[in-house]
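fold-stage: in
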Amino acid sequence: MDHAKTLTMWEGYVDWRNRPAMKGCHGGVVAASFVLVVEILENLAYLANASNLVLYLSKTMNFSPSASANIVTNFMGTSFLLALLGGFLSDACLTTYYIYLISAAIEFMGLLMLTFQARIPSLRPPICASINRNTSCNEAGHGQAAMLFGGLYLAALGVGGIKGSLPAHGAEQFDENSPQGRKHRSTFFNYYIFCLSCGALIAVTLVVWVEDNKGWQWGFGISTVAILSSIAIFLLGSGTYRIKIPKGSPFTTILKVLVAAFCNSLFPKNSISNVLDTRKSPQNTTEISQEEEGHGEWKEEIQTEMNDQKFIDKSTMNKAAYPSLHCTVKQAEEVKIVVKILPIFMSTVMLNCCLAQLSTFSIQQAATMNTYIGALKVPPASLPIFPVIFTMILAPVYNHIIIPFARAATKSEMGITHLQRIGTGLFLSIVAMAVAALVEMKRKRVAAQSGLMNSTEPLPITFLWVALQYLFLGSADLFSLAGLMEFFFTEAPLSMRSLATAVSWASLAMGYYLSSVIVSIVNHITGRFQRTPWLYGSNLNHYHLERFYWLMCILSGLNFLHYLLWATRYKYRSTEPDDQRDKNDNTPSEAQL
């Protein structure tokens, strides 16, 4: 009876009431569907403000264009970087279920503060209409700035927790021990990006129109209601979720292995030949068997490569320099996996630095151009609608047409590997930056020929030219983000999966921060050799934005070569079920890029 009950339970998972999760009752497509609906509302709340925030800061809070751009990139970078905190807490002590609820409540409070500030005139500086590039407007006072940044960074903390918990929560609903479960999980990540786009579509059309025509208080108010609604829908699906039991801090394991390896290298008590062998050491076999009690999915994770990363192997010596630092092979292998995926992570930062331009300079470019399509006036912040619609079309096509064809052609479970997908995104970012530079050259040429270099009147050139760079960068985001999230979730050890998925967002964060750093460095260097820096003043027509975009194009090309160096050498962990993996542990599959 007990054995039959065990077979119907999801080992290592509980329901929302902390009872054992049962097969047939918890997890699956229905549970993941609640997550997807919640993501639509969550991304609507976040992107409605982030996409138009640069104009709010420059026109309402009176910051300069470059200062506004840096504030937006820092805000978005912090939001994504805090995803690491959400992922860490989900793996270490709380669960993805509770982290989402706590984070959504925090974001709600931040948006509420911003709504009140946009509603009450005394909480904002007076409106400034100066077009002189050397004249500064009255920026927000200390109290006004404190409320602005308090609301922004409360929202950022909430967004980070959600990004670090929600994707992993959805992916955990599928059984990775079956090919069908792994295919459903891959489909989930594709439709997660689709739902991101659905939320973005509403944000950059309806909400941005409301902000530009009815007032920012209404835009912030819609976002506040959206995040509150997402909490209600998430709770509605509570009975269907299977929730992974936290297994302790992943950072503790990583730190212990690295310190042990370092100490054993400096103060060896035996030769390297006594390093524990995963396959041959009886002591280790017993040790792993003991650890596996209650953790049957450990055999899902171990992928031994004793010939590589020998420094980490030293942490498993039989006679450690300090007995308290003795590490198991399981712990060493987990750290090896983390070290292996780090170069791939670093290679995606430059792509996200390019994506940061969509929320800053690209919107400011469009704001100087003719934003009419026929009789319809389109808000500049609605420009992302083009890549959003393209993503909403391409995501189902990719999942239901391209992937099945690729699986049939390659006779493999993945069809198109994660690294191939990420590489496609990196290449498209190079094209996007080249297109952005050419479009900016054309925009400035029209401004000069029309005698509107110092005017606030719209230039006689349609903003649809700027949509081209949005199209390429949006496509790059589709390929890279879904591939990156699935890659990290699949390759990471079971005890680190929420944190690993959050690393995808950390890459975005580092990209936004890097964008701010590059802007500051470019201004510092060019300011020393020219009268004014490339990106200085309140008039975008006097910027040398085209040179900045060419610089980004060159850096993206160098980054792509760096990515190819690591991707062609990467070896995937096995995706076979448990029984087959035990027979093939010594033959890891290689990535075909």
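fold-stage: in (second)
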Amino acid sequence: MEERPETELISIPATPRASTPEILTPSGQRSPRGGHTSTGASNKDAKSWTPTSFISPRFLSPIGTPMKRVLVNMKGYLEEVGHLTKLNPQDAWLPITESRNGNAHYAAFHNLNAGIGFQALVLPVAFSFLGWSWGVISLTIAYFWQLYTLWILVQLHEAVPGKRYNRYVELAQAAFGERLGVWLALFPTVYLSAGTATALILVGGETMKLFFQIVCGPLCSSNPLTTVEWYLVFTSLCIVLSQLPNLNSIAGLSLVGAVTAITYATMAWVLSVSQPRPPSISYEPISLPSYTASLFSVLNAMGIIAFTFRGHNLVLEIQATMPSTFKHPAHVPMWKGAKVAYFFIAMCLFPIAIGGFWAYGNLMPSGGMLSALYAFHIHDIPRGLLAMTFLLVVFNCLSSFQIYSMPAFDSFEAGYTSRTNRPCSIWVRSGFRIFFGFVSFFIGVALPFLSSLAGLLGGLTLPVTFAYPCFMWVLIKKPTKYSFNWYFNWILGWLGVAFSLAFSIGGIWSMVNNGLKLRFFKPS
């Protein structure tokens, strides 16, 4: 007689809300296990109810041990299969979401590869206009600011129950609306992807040329390859490596890119500080003839610092490669990997900025650390050591090209699969990647000054890193109005927009004032 109430209690939860996915992917092995979809429920309901909320310690306390064991097992099962996400079958065909077996190690490799690169080499150039105090302050504020917005993006990846925002533009559409989200996010993310790929071709090709000159020395042939031909050689290598199918498949390349970036960044500042400083060195900010020129130069320098912290346009894409369940959400390994990655990024950026400025002061060439090493210490540093530094830069550029090009590959294949309703064949996929590689090459040949536009690139793409995540947090998470969280994110977002406009103006002024002649390396 006493067991009847227990039976009634057990029969209460029929789990009507733990729905199955509306659409199943054609490739179950490569697709994630779904997450919970709450249909017709408000956000408040989604936060307050889970598929196992009825199985609480208070509910289990009066039940005997065998029945308790059954319900505990059922709770674990529901936590695995009751977190069902509405899946898009197209995701199983696209390079970003094709493979979902990522982990914290992959996240660390990808974030390191995306976060350290050639842009770090021009940080001392920014210090030559800002000086010691403002240079260190600006770099420190930018680092912690972008670390906060990185955390926001990681948390917003699954902000809505039953939905994973696998791409930056998707999250922007959820926050700002379908049309406005595309207008706000598509241009800067495409600009970051395609513009960075083009700049990597320029930097990689020029570095290969210098590496050849250092290794070959006076024995070089009378008809060496031109700079454009070196661009073509580097582009061909990039296209060969780009045939790897998806984002998870380039984890090994990202590891190579991360290791080479840490190594050459360390070698660059160690070799610089170990050599005698130029006799006429000065640490006063570079003086310009007018106040306006000085102001715009400072803004351009701060834009260079902002451009150093790129890679936020890839955060959601990296997190999309991880499986996610109710018990093991993807944001946990993603944040673990990101913390490790940005610790090493800080260990590279701050020494190269401070050490490079200490070694060269305001005599720092406009091309950054590699130009300074080549100009001041070509005869002081062993040729083999200098050649190794340049070779590491080439390897890093090859690896970085892959991860920054992946969103473009994903967009091409998304357009193809949406029209044909079938996955890309290996020939179509290869064709898209060859097309993208050579388009980037031709843009680099037509605009060879692109690699010098770090300030302008930093200004135009700054909202992706510093502004939009703050706005998206307020619009999606909806913190209490006029609370500290609400004010803090609105202020940071609008400051990011203001800095974007100011840095873009400074970058345009610097570009025009210097006649588009700045290069990462002096032409030889």
